[in-house]
Q: What sequence folds into this?
């Protein structure tokens, strides 16, 4: 492939932190204890997120899905998808959060009457087994430090230009690997510390505009 776009979900596609917010609501004590350690990189995402998720009773999983139903998506997503479709470029959602939450948000009908989940090329995220007393994490792409190794997912889609869109620590390794990075919020601080160039963005209209201008000359 010539180009492929990888996009985070929580705080990126959603306009608010849905997964982190859910953990604060459903595992308040552990999240208060572990999240600062994760953001300070003293505890890996793999260890911390697993501990928090597996502390939640499995019977609460329907509540978790209901929690995201009203969460807004960031403006311009459909327009970006329209643009990428016109260019024949895949749009891959890569989330360190729960697949069920991603699909619940993207299953809403868009402006064209089509579910957004049907418009993305693929979704990679954490699955859970709800058959026991507590949620049990299942991840096909579990890495050394992440429950979903976004770099492993990227390796499935080799391309001349890999574009990453993200906002936080879960996107750091993806951003360091990508050719072009759109970063906002906490991710910009991590990238500044590592001297990795990025394009700041507020919404997906910004991303579409920047990509359109970038590719116009190529």
A:
């Amino acid at each position: 492939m010539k180009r492929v776009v990888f996009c985070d979900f929580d705080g990126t596609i959603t306009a608010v932190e849905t997964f982190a917010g859910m953990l604060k609501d459903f595992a308040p004590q552990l999240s208060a204890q572990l999240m600062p350690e994760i953001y300070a990189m003293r505890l890996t995402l793999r260890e911390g997120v697993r501990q928090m998720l597996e502390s939640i009773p499995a019977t609460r999983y329907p509540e978790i899905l209901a929690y995201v139903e009203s969460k807004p998506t960031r403006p311009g997503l459909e327009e970006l998808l329209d643009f990428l479709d016109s260019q024949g470029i895949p749009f891959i959602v890569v989330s360190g959060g729960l697949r069920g939450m991603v699909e619940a948000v993207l299953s809403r009908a868009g402006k064209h009457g089509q579910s957004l989940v049907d418009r993305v090329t693929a979704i990679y995220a954490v699955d859970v087994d709800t058959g026991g007393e507590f949620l049990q994490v299942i991840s096909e792409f579990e890495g050394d430090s992440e429950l979903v190794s976004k770099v492993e997912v990227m390796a499935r889609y080799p391309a001349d230009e890999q574009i990453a869109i993200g906002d936080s620590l879960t996107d750091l390794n993806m951003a360091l690997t990508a050719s072009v990075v759109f970063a906002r919020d906490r991710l910009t601080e991590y990238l500044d510390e590592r001297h990795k160039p990025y394009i700041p963005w507020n919404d997906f209209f910004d991303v579409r505009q920047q990509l359109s201008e970038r590719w116009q000359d190529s």
In short: Residues 3-216 form a domain with the Rossmann fold fold (CATH 3.40.50.1000). The mean pLDDT is 94. The longest helix spans residues 204-216. The chain has one domain: 3-216.
